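User: For my dataset I need records formatted as: sequence, then structure tokens, nothing else. Please produce one.
Assistant:
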Amino acid sequence: MSDTNDESEVMDEWAAAMEEAADSGDEAAAKQTEEVQHAGFENLQESGSRGNEDINLDVILDVPVTLSLEIGRSQINIRNLLQLNQGSVIELDRLAGEPLDVLVNGTLIAHGEVVVVNEKFGIRLTDIISPAERVKKLK
């Protein structure tokens, strides 16, 4: 209710200022006073419940995303980086047999393990990160 009162006070102040300008002989201001109309936003409502509505995901089904798998990470200094050559081994922060991270556009969405299918590498998802957990990690 206070927003409505504040809005009325502002409208009253504007109306008084416009009348004052009109009284002072300013014809342009008087003309604007006649043209001023209150914008109607009464029909706008905030929809708080979207649970009952069907969400149409068809709109985004063809949007491409980047899927990447992270085996592990390592930090090395530039001197060691420049000394790497074919056959060099870099130690990662994960143990053998630990699940890989599955990232979509850089966001962790699952864990999985490497499999070979028709002589190609693949990943078997072992754990999906819930949306609630993903939101917690953002904070």
